[in-house]
Amino acid sequence: MSTGFRLRSVRTKLFVGVLLTSLAAIVVTGASLLAYDLHSIRETLSVDLSTQAELIGRACVPALQFDDPKVAHDNLALLDARPNIDAAGLYNAKGVLFGNYVRNGSTPEDFPPLAGTDGVRFSGQDIYVTRRIVSDKEIVGFIYMHAEYGLYQRVKSYLGIVLAVGSLALLVALLLSLWLQVTVTRPILAITGLAQQVVEKGDYTPRARKITDDEIGYLTDAFNRMLGEIGGRTDALEASNRELGHEIAERKGAEIALRNSEKRYRALVSTLSTVVWVANREWEFGDEQASWQAYTGQMPEEYRGKGWQRAFHPEDLPALQQHIERAMKGHQTFETELRLWQAATAQYHIVDLRPVAVFDGNGEFREWIGTVTDIDDRRRAEDEVRRLNVELEGRVRERTKKLEQANGELEAFSYSVSHDLRAPLRAMDGFSQRLLADYGTKLDEQAHNYLNRIRSGAVRMGQLIEDLLSLARITRVELTRREVDVSALVHVIVTELQQRDPERKVQVSVWEAVHVEADVRTLRVALENLLGNAWKFTSKTPEARIEFGMMQEGERKVLFVRDNGAGFDMTYSDKLFGPFQRLHGINEFPGTGIGLATVQRIVARHGGRIWCQAKPDMGATFFFTLKEDAPPRDA
Amino acid sequence: MRDPCTLFTRALLPALLCIGMAAPAGAQPDPDAVAAQQRIEAAYLYKFGSYVTWPDGSFAGADSPIVIGVAGADTLADDLSALVAGRDIGGRPVRVKRIQAQDPLGGIDILFVGTRSDALFAASRGLPILVVTDGEDGLQRGAAVSFVLVDDRVRFDVSLDAAQQNGLKLSSLLLSVAHNVSGAKP
């Protein structure tokens, strides 16, 4: 709709333009021609009339000279031959009308009293000419003529011509404009229609047809090229828009993250007991240094510029200056401990000063930002710890010395026990034996019984001493871990037990190829104890069974010794591993009560644990490990 | 060079004025009327020079004067002398010469005969002289131009034959204002 209007407008413009141009040309040409022609007619007429006057005047010279009005009249009457001359008057030298002529049918003339000079005067439709008549250098009279100028008629006829020519020209212009419309407007119309289609549908694929080979043809080509270009650009733009959309989304996400980060940062800074400061490139403080002000008590006018440095201990200033100079050269961060005035306690505190150079997005160095951390308390604590450590080390050394001394004493004690305590026992045993051997016949049954009991007590005492010494040794002995074939070891121990007690029939099952990392000597002691216990507590069981084996629980190897002997009540299991703890009567099962304590000590020295499961008359199982467990495990 | 206007006002205008005043003066010849008539005739005499073509060789040079001879009319001669003073005809100065009956006519170009004697007519015959007289019978007596009074106006008759006899050509303009023209037409 708007296109139609626009096109109509272009067509109209073209039409009106051509018409107006033609019209203007015609009017201007007509007007200038008319003006020129009127002017030239005036000139011609005035020259013509002047010449006429001159001629008539000359002809009238004799009439004037010889005073013959009749001849003058006759001469003037010749003017009948010139129909445009209305009237003429002849004046003598005195200026008196001498003869005159008035055209038939024209209005009677008012002959003017004569002005004595030559001249031509135009007045509307009329032209008036006055001339002197000269003969032999003498003015003999004057002639006056009045002719019709015919201005209006000329203008009228001129206008008629202009009108006719104008109409013709306009007609030609009309035809011309029609032709122009065909040759100029149609290709433009084609392009405009296409442009309309492109705008409405956003489809850049159609192309305008080139009709003419002139500027419009070039325009068509250019338009087609432009369409191609726009199509390409539009695609590129859409792709770019999509990318931009992604980028914006990403950036938005990044912005939110940044904002959150900044919020976190601000929250952190505000809760930080640390002082945070910002200085420009010249190490000068700006106005806003709230935490610095709070810590040092310096007012903005005090810390502004380089004033902040005065809050440090005067003795530390040279060091600070050195650090600053070095940092300014390389924009490098540093960390130093200085003494800074703390307003709250009114004394210098040791602080950790740590500045970092801040660069902007272009990698341009912008400012320094840094922290001041009060490490005074920490430093004091560290000093205290150091002091305590030194003291402790001294004490440890002292104790160790004492312990070594005590150990030595203990060792000596052990020997004295083994030798000194054993001697009286041997004496008791020996003399008891002599009594039985020498006086056995003289002694009654009762006495024999007592003597045997003395002897077995001595033996037990010896065993007890042996066990105690063993326990003590276990505690002190150095462990040497290496791989041990536990199964083989168990076989050896069981064989020994069988040899010592050949009548017993015990079903012993040993898992083969059980290997562990352990100290072989102490492990053997532990196994001897455990297997010995099993052997002992199955002595009253009809079908005695002893089992050795190992359970693999992940990395952990759990060894166990199981029997189907007397067992015990689990209520007392916690007392089981203490020395001298016995759950059975000494008469029921012999023992010193040191064995399990020794086993427990050996297992503990290996870093392992020992625990048990048992029921009275249902047997007992002892589990143990020889390495530290990662997770603690309850029995 | 003298201004024609000045000349006009000083000499010719008074002459014409006299004509105008003399005309209504009446038919009876009175001394004033006669004097006026003579002044007009003097003026006409002078003006005839403009309309006459003398034969070649009549003048010695281009600026040789035109000599007007006056016989038997002293008043007229006086008027004429006053009139022609400082004037010329076609570049030639004008001289006035009083002539007696027996005077030779050599060098005379225009001759006014105011006497009734016919000797001067005879003497001038064949010479390049325009002979002027006055009276109704002037032409019969042999003059080429003769002044006549018509309705109290000074007019003149012309005899082409007489002029032709003396080898003169008269301008048709002169003839157009003549009262009567006699003689052969070509």
Descriptive overview:
- The complex is a heterodimer of chains A (635) and B (186).
- Chain A is an alpha+beta fold and 635 residues long.
- Chain A has 13 helices and 16 strands.
- Chain A has helices at residues 2-59, 61-65, 69-77, 151-201, 215-271, 290-296, 300-303, 317-330, 376-439, 445-476, 486-500, 520-537, 595-605, and strands spanning 85-92, 97-102, 119-123, 126-135, 138-148, 275-279, 336-342, 347-359, 365-374, 481-485, 507-510, 515-519, 545-553, 556-563, 610-614, 620-624.
- In chain A, the strands form 4 sheets. Chain A has a 5-stranded antiparallel beta sheet with strand order 2-1-5-4-3.
- In chain A, strand 7 (336-342) and strand 8 form a beta hairpin.
- Chain B has a single domain (4-182), classed as Rossmann fold (3-Layer(aba) Sandwich).
- The longest helix of chain B is centred in the N-terminal third of the chain and has 19 residues, at 4-22.
- In chain B, 39% of the residues are buried.
- The model of chain B is unreliable at 1-9 and 11-27 (pLDDT under 50).
- Chain A binds chain B through residues 59, 61-63, 65-68, 71, 74, 92-94, 134-139, and chain B through 4-5, 7-8, 12-13, 16-17, 19, 40, 44, 47, 50-51, 87-90, 153-156, 171, 173-174, 176-177.
